[in-house]
Amino acid sequence: MNTLFILLSGQAVLGAFDNLWHHELQAQLPQRTSARRELGLHTLREAIYGVIFIGLAWWQWQGAFAVLLAGLLAVEVLITLADFLEEDRSRTLPPFERVLHTVLTISYGLFLALMAPLLWGWVQAPSGLMPVNHGAWAPLLTLYGVGVLAWSLRNLVAWHRLGRVPAPAAAQPAAMRRQPAVLVAGATGFVGQALVAELSREGRRVIALSRDLRQARAQFGPGVWVVDDLDAIPSETRIDAIVNLAGARVLGMPWTRARRQVLLNSRVDVTQRLVGLMRRLEQRPRVLVSASAVGFYGAVNDGAPCTEASPPKPGEFQSDLCAAIEHEARRAEALGARVVRLRFGVVLGLGGGAYPMQALAARLGVGARLGTGQQPAPWLHRDDAVGLIRFALEQTTLSGAVNAVAPDTPRQLEFAQALATSFGRCVWLSAPASLLRRLAGEMSTILLDGQNAIPAAALAAGYRFHHPTLQGALADLAARLAL
Fold first, then answer.
1. How do residues 33-86 score in pLDDT, each as one tens digit?
2. Taking the alpha carbons of 144, 93, 271, 282 in that order, is the dihedral positive or negative?
3. For domain 174-482, is the CATH number 3.90.1180.10?
4. Is the pTM of this model over 0.85?
5. Domain-wise residue ranges, the chain
């Protein structure tokens, strides 16, 4: 049995890594409506693994129970095959994920080959679950089983929640396809997908630029024209406006030299190509709304207000990154386009971004003060992120830099306390700044340094926030989470 349990341990460890790294952090399956069928398959498979782990840890399955166990193992094979087909339909897997899936499949095949003769012997014994003693393997397999069952439940909740999300827009009629379009780069991102959904519901023609055609087409349906290359857009296409939300996630991997280049290229290169498209189009777009961030101002921990007129801080990576993005976006001004540079704070909402993990920590009572906790924490509800983009598209007098943050900017500790309070919890943990800087390097500046950004331009232009206060925004999100 030791060999079987070693194989099961490999399945547990590699499967957990696959779930956390590929499904949760990279593909963000629980937040994508197009991944609902895949999540359903994962839910069933993980439940089966939970039963197998715990069942083999403590009992020998005999007679009819052995037949039941064999049936569960066979069903797992069918689910895995269906999962392969669903992944090919709905998204493009990165090479490492394909390799990992191959290793998991081979490992499971070896497990089945070794398990088959045991099952045959158990089938011929009297029916029953016979207690066995596998020593230290029993609690270890039980731990695996509890973990995978918890993940199955988590995916079941996500599967149920995604079932309440409206279906993608239907295919647009020919007359609508001749209307001027809104081109959205970064359309499958946290804010982008909400923007595309809202524009589609209003009957607007939308072109979505995405690196993953399968994912985007499965997510948005036939009502949205999805491209992975701007060269696929003919020069005679009528595009009225462009929204650029593209960019790799800033908070995550350490800011090594290679990672910094990825962050820079994922934003600057896309912006350059969008401006190149504007030059090529026979009828040029009237407006470009380009996403930047309040990191433009660098670390300003003294609480001094940062308005759109405040300068950047050359030499700080987050400031240099935002300045480079905005520099490329402003090239569209020479083409006669109105350019709005939205400097976003942390966007809060369900289905992605920072809030889900922060909310989970708060509900578990492990919210924490980061460093001194006195650094400003600018934020924005996703409703207002989409609202400000729409406002920038339609408000013809608005141009230049716009701080996309709520008027209420708390300190980090105040933010953590408000988040915990929204779930009836309190903050009692503290993460020392020295530890965070040692672990994350310069990337820790996002957590430990902040900007007291003021939405002066948005307020002056007449934008009215849906969620102007942190307490109201968190109450709204907590209520939606409870549904």
1. 778 889 999 999 999 999 999 999 999 999 999 999 999 999 999 999 999 988
2. negative
3. no
4. no
5. 2-162, 174-482
